[in-house]
Write a structure and sequence with these properties.
The chain has about 230 residues and is of the alpha/beta class. The termini are far apart. The structure holds zinc ion (ZN).
Length: about 230
């Protein structure tokens, strides 16, 4: 509350906000911890998979004893213990074309904590259609990227990344890369809700923790974008 422009009003805005995060893995775990600790009033968290031992290096909400449990259950238990004053709901269904609009409807911000672009594009379409800001991040190895989509104002995810990178069956992620980009997503979410600072709308952060290069590139709206072109 001592941050300039944030104040008690900023904290109250957080308390009144609803954030939906899709994915409770390497990005979603740290994101959910920080949003719960920040006092976001209502968190809807979505993941249909179970905790897997090799993922514990980055999925910091899930611990050794959670292996084999639903990530949604593990997350709910930890986050409720962290902040019992906020409302937390979990959804254990995979995101599909059929359920995506219902899932994000009513959210103030949607956060993409996914590991594949097929589902990211579904989220992007639903958020653009419903006018809900979407915060995106993706990580691989020591590198990651992030952007924010404000429908009607900024390019959408499809404008910025028109074609999905080829999907790899297995790709490496080191914990701190996911944590770093998750913190960028948490910051974007809090800024969108409170109006403090400037977001990555119309910009793409490209971070390489291997050589410490952090670039913020301008992005452009594609007038022929299949998702937001006519908007
Ligand atoms: Zn677009």
């Amino acid at each position: 509350m001592l941050i300039e422009g944030f104040g008690q009003e900023g904290q109250e805005r957080l308390a009144g906000a609803r954030v939906t995060a899709v994915g409770l893995g390497g990005l979603g775990s740290p994101l959910a911890i920080y949003l719960a600790a920040a006092g976001v009033g209502r968190l809807t968290l979505c993941d249909y998979k179970e905790v897997d031992a090799p993922d514990l290096n980055r999925q910091v909400l899930h611990w050794e004893g959670d292996v084999g449990r639903a990530k949604a259950d593990s997350a709910l238990e930890k986050l409720r213990a962290l902040n019992p004053r906020i409302r937390i709901e979990v959804i254990k269904d995979p995101v599909s074309r059929e359920n995506v609009r219902g899932l994000v409807e009513g959210s103030d911000v949607v956060v993409d904590c996914l590991d594949n672009f097929d589902t990211r594009y579904l989220l992007n379409e639903a958020c653009v259609g419903l006018g809900i800001p979407l915060v995106h991040a993706a990580v691989e190895g020591l590198r990651g990227q992030a952007t924010t989509v404000v429908p009607g104002k900024s390019p959408c995810l499809r404008c910025v990344i028109p074609v999905a990178p080829q999907r790899k069956a297995v790709f490496p992620i080191i914990g701190f890369t996911a944590g770093f980009l998750a913190m960028v997503e948490a910051a974007e979410t809090v800024k969108l809700i409170t109006g403090v600072g400037e977001t990555l709308a119309g910009k793409l952060l490209v971070a390489d923790l291997g050589d410490n290069s952090y670039q913020v590139l301008e992005t452009r709206k594609n007038p022929d974008c299949p998702t937001c072109g006519s908007r």
